[in-house]
Design brief:
The chain is an all-alpha fold. The protein folds into 2 domains: about 110 residues, Rna Polymerase Sigma Factor, Chain: A (Orthogonal Bundle); about 120 residues, Winged helix-like DNA-binding domain superfamily/Winged helix DNA-binding domain (Arc Repressor Mutant, subunit A, Orthogonal Bundle). The chain has 9 helices and no strands. The chain starts with a helix and ends in a 14-residue tail after the last helix.
């Protein structure tokens, strides 16, 4: 009963927020951005790889949310609806990049490794002061490894794994976000996880966690790694 009451409470709270958004409340829009900006950016970044493109696309996502909120009919959750817009915008941006930007020659120095990023970049977000410096280096290397191999997955398997194993959406939510069937989601997830697992197996021995990783994989039915990996750019 407590879970049901909690679910009802969440839906009631969300309905009130949506009503405020539809009424044009600036406070509601400020709350929306504060609550969803980082998750949306994180999702978009993992699809696009480029921080600048991800920032621009995130802005476009919220513009679409602002313009479309009056048409939101509450058949899905607000989060699912926003994520659907985010995936759509990021996919469009990615297609545009391959058609146009990939053929441009940049005069800026290339960033070959994530370690070349500014100190204010992604790696600062990974620091956990409760761990030793050695453990921090180990964790960052492992997370960077997982993120790199995740980026190597082809679409739509990449986005499916991101939505399930990082964003923790349900199968039904992913089907709605990606506008596909539940069976397709499950199939893509199995294939995406398998491809990622095979890529990660090349690295686990170097981190000395091969046995633990395989045991964890077995218990999680094929998730992305030996531990929950969250890199929020």
């Amino acid at each position: 009963m407590s879970d049901l009451a909690s679910a009802i409470g969440v839906r009631t709270e969300e309905a009130a927020i949506v009503a405020e958004l539809k009424a044009g409340s600036e406070e509601a829009f400020s709350w929306l951005i504060a609550h969803y900006n980082q998750p949306v950016y994180s999702l978009v970044y993992r699809i696009l790889d480029d921080p600048s493109d991800a920032a621009d696309t995130t802005q476009e996502v919220f513009i679409k949310v602002f313009r479309g909120i009056k048409g939101f009919n509450s058949n899905s959750s607000l989060k699912t609806w926003i994520y659907r817009i985010a995936v759509h915008e990021a996919s469009n941006r990615r297609r545009w990049w391959f058609r146009h930007k990939a053929h441009e020659t940049s005069i800026e120095p290339a960033v070959e490794h994530e370690s070349d990023m500014p100190a204010s970049g992604m790696k600062d977000m990974l620091v956990d002061e409760g761990k030793s410096p050695l453990q921090n280096v180990y964790d960052e290397e492992l997370k960077a490894c997982v993120e790199a191999e995740l980026k190597a997955l082809t679409e739509p398997y990449r986005t499916t794994v991101i939505l399930r194993d990082i964003e923790e959406l349900s199968y039904e939510q992913i089907a709605e976000v990606m506008d596909t069937s539940l069976g397709t989601v499950k199939s893509r997830l199995v294939r995406g996880r398998d491809a990622l697992r095979r890529r990660l197996e090349r690295h686990v021995a170097g981190f000395g966690i091969a046995g633990a990783w395989r045991e964890k994989e077995h218990h999680r039915h094929g998730s992305v790694g030996s531990r929950k990996v969250e890199v929020i750019p």
